[in-house]
Amino acid sequence: MTNKFTYITLAALAAAIVSTGCQHRPVGVTPIPNGPNYQVGDTGPNTMQSAPPIENAPPISGTQMPQPVAETGPFDPSKWNEDRSALAADTVHFAFDSAVIRDSEKGNLTQVAAALQADATANLMIEGNCDERGTEEYNRSLGERRAEATREALVGLGIDASRIHTISYGKDKPEDPGHDEAAWSKNRRDDFVLLHPKTGA
Fold first, then answer.
1. pTM exceeds 0.85, yes or no
2. Structurally, what CATH architecture does the domain formed by 81-197 represent?
3. Partner of 32 at 20 to 30 A CA spacing, among 16, 100, 138, 187?
4. Distance (Å, rounded) from C-alpha 38 to C-alpha 183?
């Protein structure tokens, strides 16, 4: 009788230990006040289910990721003769802190496009410039945006994008060294350099 009572007591104690263990919360999990308290491993209401594996998918590696490819390779100035006078009268000017090409400047772009269409061997360098206000880094970026805006406008006029190169000088090459609006308005510009290939280049 004693052995039977001892067996029943041990069985009840074991069941209580198992029940207590199943209800134990993970250490370090903070309950959310007035909210659902999920156990570790529970699926929340907005949890995405695992997608089925893709069969025969090629392994992903750094060498297989798509990389940008330059159509004509990096620009090499040593292969070109620069002509700064041919398009000097067609400089495009910008409003303060802007890379938008104004209507008053579009005639200059038409002239530049016509020069490139008349000489299929020529390329073009667009030099973006800014006035002295603002940081060096900001003006370098603004000059780049100005040059790119002009490049896109010329592409829109029928010029092959591969013939047009851009560079930004920021505020490093002012046309007018003055420190007033008269000078600044001249320095907010895109200059055009006509490029002709060197013989044997």
1. no
2. 2-Layer Sandwich (3.30)
3. 16
4. 67
